[in-house]
Amino acid sequence: MIATPAAEFSTDKGATRPVLMDLKNITLRFGGVVAIKDISFDIREGEIRAIIGPNGAGKSSMLNVISGFYVPQQGEIWFEGQKRPPMKPYQVARLGLARTFQNIALFDGMSVLDNIMTGRLNKMKSSLFSQALWWGPAEREEVENRAQVEKIIDFLEIQNIRKTPVGRLPYGLKKRVELARALAAEPRILLLDEPMAGMNVEEKEDMCRFILDVNDEFGTTIVLIEHDMGVVMDLSDRVVVMDYGRKIGDGTPDEVRANPEVISAYLGVAHE
Amino acid sequence: MSNMQSAEAGLRSIPALLARNAAQFGNRAAYREKEFGIWQSWTWAETSRQIRDIALGFLVLGLKPGEHVAIIGRNRPMHYWSMVAAQMCGAVPVPLYQDAVADEMAYVLGNCGARFVVCGDQEQVDKVLEVGDRAPAVQHLIYTDRRGMRKYDHSRMNALADIQTEGRAAEQRLGAELDARIAGLGYDDTCVMLYTSGTTGKPKGVVLSNRNIIETSKNSAGFDRLTEAEEVLAYLPMAWVGDFIFSVGQAYSAGFTVNCPEGAQTMMTDLREIGPSYFFAPPRVFEGQLTSVMIRMEDAGRIKRGLFRHFMDLARRVGPSILEGRSVGPLDRLRYGLGNLLIYGPLKNTLGYSRIRVGYTAGEAIGPEIFSFYRSLGINLKQLYGQTEASVFITQQPDGAVRPDTVGVPSPGVELKIAESGEVFYRGPGTFVEYFGNPDSTASTKDPEGWVATGDAGFFEEQTGQLRIIDRAKDVGKMADGRMFAPKYVENKLKFYPNILEAVVFGAGREFCTAFINIDLTAVGNWAERNNIAYASYQELAGHPQVYAMIRDHVSQVNASVAEDPMLSGCQISRFLVLHKELDPDDGEMTRTRKVRRGVIADKYADLIAALYDGSQNVFTETEVTYEDGRKGRIKATLRIEDAQVAPPALHVKPRGIAA
Question: Is the per-residue pLDDT at B492 higher than 80?
Fold first, then answer.
């Protein structure tokens, strides 16, 4: 008889891979409010890195720092061994970062296909003029990009809604389309802001499978914020725990689960 | 020409037909599959090469003649090719239902003892791995879709494409061996083994020979004059005999094109894009399409709605006659032509039926309105009656003699007889060889002369000579006065009303017939909303006097239509009640495929049945229900029993026995 599948998703992935992004002593303030206080952690090539914490802990702010939307007052971001100067989000996107949003940010009136095509924007080089005329290189370029988008559509199993306007889709599918658009940019790092929020169990299971498959198949590094602890502990290689803008834990899911500070802050105080 | 005829005689296996097609229709499309949003296609010549490479790959892995090769996956060219490749090696393909859970799969895999299993994707692989020791023979797992498969232990696992590449490389080494095996395929060797779903007991492996499949395919293709130009859409489960006949048997025999949809959910879009010329669908597909058309028409503007209504009335009046080539007045013909331009043509195009030449439906009764809707549009929809054990075809309707309530004349080469009990028996070229490893079942189903019991009761209609199926033979009984009792016949008529979800008719050994009715919550709920009828629960809605009045109306209409049939006029429903809960598989009242379990219902609701016959007006009952999570509860209700109008039996036809 055939042996059972080989080792489950290995947990030592984070420790052995090279560092892709290193965040050093990040501090972010909005006026008098300190959203992020002196946080350092790294993201390794090909891992799934989760950021968790109670509401208002600064998780989304952290993601926005990574994506370049917020510029921290203090601290440094190192990407592939080089210090990243303050950048606009579109410049960061060109470095190979893509993200999804907590509140879906798609173009409702456009079809699923067109929405995903917008994710290819950074891959298109021909001018607006030649694209409008659908001439020569522009045509070839669109065909190439469309082929790439079709692969993603196939990957995320959304063939049946290819031509459907996004506004008509249920929530769970919109989330999947958003993931598709992020993937269309062929990112090195994929930032997911609460990818499972508001989903039912079945949709969550699907989404988990897609995240694991993206990580496995394309080798994409994934940083995700998520509230569902079961999902986080199952998916992630390493977890950063935040509370009131501070980092209170960092490690594998098992380490984090055993960390007393994390237990008291996030899961409630443990009683003797 | 004489050359070709002598060649015909040598076509005694699917691989032989493949070789003929590659030579004769080399540049015609054999398969198409939509992938990455584009229809990819393979000609017969390319297909032949692909299949040969897979077969060589199987030889590399050591596939032996006579072995079973299990195939689990959706309709994809690669899966059809694997079946034919297995046949080339002298092995027997065994397609399995891809939605079966691991436990069901364990039985079938264990029973057929397959060493090779071809899986469509990771999901199927996981199920086969879960089966584990319950199918100890499984040695090689082969998968089509590589996705998610990288981390599995590959010591006994391969991607089908890799096997194909290895096979291509082994042409020099193993080509002669493969040719010898193909040449050795005999007409009475097994072509395919298909498991029947088995409403009672374990599934049985039906062994069908090359003779069964090829003769049946040739006969039935001749019956409908199918040519190499047909287009079919392969979307029904590969494990079902119909798909094997349509997408393999007839496709290879006639040489036509098999189109595989992108996925199960894109089926309707793909249907429209392909526009098949030969199409099969169970009644629920046609029902679903009609419902969606009607709902969209309700939302359309006034002019469109008016046009639609006007031309559909015309189509209903003259459409079937035009389709069957009967005489129709020139004015009506002109108006129908206009309708075709404005309504029928665009509608057929939307449904994907623009090019349809032959369409079949079977499996269960189709509502007469639904049936005539499609026929009036000029779609040649017909009915057939078949079984796995018959390689599908027992009877089918010839062009020009199509009726909604019959299933046609015996298929070419098939003989029929009807036993004293009313049960239909058949014998023909497609009659199965045996149940695999089950001589007892084989003997009890097929007698030494080759007659097979269908388990269905029916009779031949005198005026048309077509077979009409009444019910399952074991359900057909006699009433107290000896009149025939066929519950499903009446239940089907009731269920054609959208408001009625289920019906259970009683009457065996009784003076008159009675019925339980289940309302359809969606339809009746909708109706209640439109008519401002307030209700708080299913139970309250089911017991509402206006609902009762509506159901009584339906029952009376059914009675009138049952009365038209002198043989079955005794089955009219005298008294009925509307059940306070939906019949549910969780409570054991139905099977998972939603077939009523009469025995369970008769036991559980004995008090209600007694009340139907003792003349009481109300009955109090308490019923146990099982919730989805397995908890149990009880519901109490007082149900009203009403009398329905019973029509006098039609007298103009003299009663006759059921034996033909």
Answer: yes
CB atoms within 10 A of CB B177: 13
Closest to A216 (Cβ–Cβ): which among B35, B148, B153? B148
Q: Are B623 and B580 in contact (CB under 8 A)?
A: yes
What is the side-by-side order of every strand in the sheet holding A238-243? Answer: A97-99, A189-193, A221-225, A48-52, A238-243, A246-251
pLDDT digits (tens, 9 = 90+) for B615-629: 888 889 888 887 766
pTM value?
Answer: 0.82
* pLDDT value at residue B654: 41
* Domain segments of chain A as ranges: 14-96+188-272, 109-186
At the fourth CATH level, which superfamily is domain B483-643? ANL, C-terminal domain (3.30.300.30)
Q: What is the ipTM of this complex?
A: 0.74
Asked whether the beta carbons of residue B147 and residue A147 sit closer than 8 angstroms, the reply is: no
Question: Tokens 């397959």 map to which residue?
Answer: B114
Which positions in chain B touch A173 (Cβ < 8 Å)? none
Q: Which two tokens stand for residue B407?
A: 């299933």
Residue labelled with tokens 């040719």 = B179
Strands B381-387 and B392-396: antiparallel
Kindly state the tokens that stand for B135. Answer: 């199918």
Architecture of domain A14-96+188-272: 3-Layer(aba) Sandwich (3.40)
Nearest CA in chain B to A113: B37
Is A153–B37 a contact, with Cβ atoms under 8 angstroms apart? yes
**CA–CA separation, B472 vs B458, rounded Å?**
9
Question: Which residue in the block uniquely carries the two structure tokens 């009828």?
Answer: B533
What pairs with residue B578 in β-bridges? B517
B441 touches chain A (CB under 8 A): no
Closest-CA residue of A relative to B38 is: A150
Min mean pLDDT across A145-149, A251-255, B524-528, B610-614 is at B524-528
Question: CB–CB of A44/A20 below 8 Å?
Answer: yes
pLDDT value at position B63?
Answer: 95
Separation of alpha carbons A158 and A180, rounded Å: 9
For residue B155, the chain A residues in CB contact (below 8 A) are: 2-3
* CATH number at B2-213+239-252: 3.40.50.12780
Query: Are the C-beta atoms of residues A218 and A187 closer than 8 Å to each other?
Result: no
Residues A265, A248: contact at Cβ < 8 Å? yes
| pLDDT score for B7 | 47
DSSP state of B514: E
Residues A3-26, mean pLDDT to the nearest whole number: 65
Please give the average per-residue pLDDT across A43-52, as a whole number.
92
| Six-digit token string for B612 | 């139907």
H-only helix segments in B377-479 = 439-445
Comparing CA positions, the residue from B283, B271, B475, B459 lying closest to residue B364 is: B283
Question: Residues A71, A26: contact at Cβ < 8 Å?
Answer: no
Token pair in block for residue B368: 């007469």
Beta-carbon contacts of residue B358 (< 8 Å; ≥ 6 apart): B224, B226, B277, B278, B279, B380, B382
pLDDT of residue B403: 85
Q: Where are the domains of chain B?
A: 2-213+239-252, 483-643
Contact at CB, B150 and A3, closer than 8 angstroms: no
Q: Is B266 on the interface with A (CB under 8 A)?
A: yes
Residue of A nearest to B140 (CA): A2
pLDDT in tens, B166-206: 999 999 999 999 999 999 999 999 999 999 875 556 889 99
Note whether B463 contacts A: Cβ–Cβ < 8 A: no
CA distance B452 to B475: 19
Q: How far apart are CA B124 and CA B132, in angstroms?
A: 13
Query: Which of B74, B153, B270 should one mutate to test binding to chain A, selecting the residue with the greatest count of A CBs within 10 A?
Result: B153
Quickly tell me which residue has 């298909």 as its tokens: B194
- pLDDT at residue A271, as a whole number: 53
Q: Which two tokens stand for residue B187?
A: 């007409």
